[in-house]
Design brief:
Blueprint (H helix, E strand, L loop, with lengths): L3 E6 L3 H11 L6 E7 L3 H11 L4 E3 L2 H6 L5 E4 L4 H12 L3 E4 L7 H13 L4 E3 L7 H11 L6 E8 L6 H5 L14 H4 L2 H11 L5 E8 L8 E9 L5 E7 L7 E7 L2 E6 L2 E7 L3 H7 L9 E6 L7 H13 L12 H17 L3 E2 L4 H14 L5
Parallel strand pairs: 1-2, 1-4, 2-3, 4-5, 5-6, 7-10
Antiparallel strand pairs: 7-11, 8-9, 8-15, 9-10, 11-12, 12-13, 13-14
The chain binds nicotinamide-adenine-dinucleotide.
Length: 373
């Protein structure tokens, strides 16, 4: 089978990481044919790393219109994801867009409209969906293992970032360059997983984002959010880039049990009787449903980005279904935006919220910014 020809747009940390997947022969049905970056130094380092069999471009547009690729991986800073992806989709290319799908809902909506009309495939790099840990949690929850969801909690504070990380690029941790902090950069993964695993987006959000609380940055580096869902479930999401040692604990509790995911392990608490039924039937003074604790095996594999690129190449070839429809990226951007909006307005925000209001408040922060980028 002829391999899918890939171009990487943006040869920074992530773009060069994606190139590794090709040079280490991890992509069975894909080959790297082109790289674009608008920074000449990045092109020089790409040439050193990848050599002469690749064509190099100084702009995304040149690569997209070159005819040298069937697919592109967009690995530029977040604001440019949608514009570059739309350009590539409109020219008939298949597109893998890095996370987050975009910075704000209005631009992601435009990208989704382009994807709906495009002949090429479209996905977003939600590589943690390929992690065996979260695949297993998703299987348990979507298979009804916890029953009707009542509560979700994710304490994800093991994203420690020192000040030097924020100082490493001018676009990082600014309203203009990134449009947010820990939510927009690190947490698109967990928010996507939460939506994917539960199959639900909260209808109400009250969040407390603290901006530059622990670092010399203008965007959020500490967040506590409360969610309310249509079915009555509630959720708490806590994140920070300054906790050390941090924690990563996901807990999903429903009427039939609970699944806890921490330190690479899953524990499944399976009630012997649905809690709602027990509550109706039990006549004693004090009591609680009995349960079994079931250790859950998983293969420990976390193939990350290469898994998404492999699936994408195979899907382009028609050899397997596309794992993630890129249009799902909208939901996580919407929830991330809702958390910021709730903090800015200092009140509970209903989803869907007013996208124009969100954009105007973001633009206001860009105008007032004292950071130079
Ligand atoms: N999926 C993941 O696990 C993961 C991990 C890290 C980063 N990312 C995402 O990857 C993206 C890039 O992050 P990074 O850490 O590699 O940043 P980076 O700053 O290291 O690299 C970005 C590169 O894009 C280039 N660039 C910027 N605008 C461009 C344009 N219009 N056309 C062509 N090139 C352009 C820059 O010169 C730079 O080389 C971000 O959106 C980030 O969220 C995803």
């Amino acid at each position: 089978m002829e391999k899918v020809k890939f171009g990487i747009i943006g040869f920074g940390n992530m773009g060069s990481n994606h190139a590794n997947s090709f040079i280490e022969n991890k992509i069975t049905n894909g080959m790297l044919t082109a790289v674009a970056d608008n920074d000449i130094k990045k092109i020089e380092s790409a040439k050193q790393k990848l050599g002469g069999n690749i064509t190099y471009f100084n702009s995304a547009d040149e690569l997209i219109s070159s005819g040298l690729t069937d697919a592109v991986i967009v690995a530029t800073p977040h604001y440019s994801h949608c514009g570059i992806s739309i350009n590539a989709l409109n020219r008939g290319l298949n597109v893998i867009c890095e996370k987050p799908a975009g910075v704000y809902t209005k631009q992601v909506e435009e990208m989704n409209n382009a994807a709906a009309k495009a002949k090429g495939l479209f996905t977003v790099m939600f590589c943690l969906r390929a992690n065996s840990l979260y695949k297993k949690v998703s299987e348990i929850v979507s298979g009804g293992g916890v029953g009707e969801i009542k509560r979700v909690n994710w304490l994800i504070t093991d994203w420690y970032r020192p000040q030097s990380y924020y100082n490493s690029s001018t676009w990082r941790a600014t309203w203009k360059g990134e449009g947010g902090g820990v939510l927009l950069n690190q947490c698109p993964h967990q928010i996507d997983l939460l939506i994917w695993i539960t199959g639900m987006v909260p209808k109400k959000v009250r969040a407390f984002c603290r901006f530059g609380k622990w670092h010399d940055i203008e965007v959020e580096d500490d967040v506590t959010a409360y969610f309310e869902y249509e079915n009555g479930a509630s959720g708490v999401f806590v994140t920070s880039t300054a906790d050390s040692p941090g924690t990563n604990r996901l807990e999903i509790l429903g009427t039939k049990g609970k699944v806890v995911c921490e330190k690479g392990q899953i524990t499944y608490y399976k009630l012997k009787q649905d809690e709602r039924e027990f509550n109706k039937e039990f006549k004693g003074f004090m009591g609680e449903p009995a349960y079994d604790i079931i250790p859950v095996e998983h293969d420990g594999k976390n193939p990350l980005h290469a898994a998404i690129i492999n699936n994408f190449a195979n899907a382009v070839k028609g050899a397997e279904p596309l794992f993630i429809d890129g249009r799902e990226g909208y939901k996580s951007v919407q929830l991330l935006n809702a958390m910021l909006l709730s903090s800015w307005l200092d009140k509970t925000v209903k989803i869907p919220f007013d996208d124009d209001l969100y954009l105007s408040m973001l633009e206001e922060r860009i105008r007032r910014s004292e950071k130079t980028n």
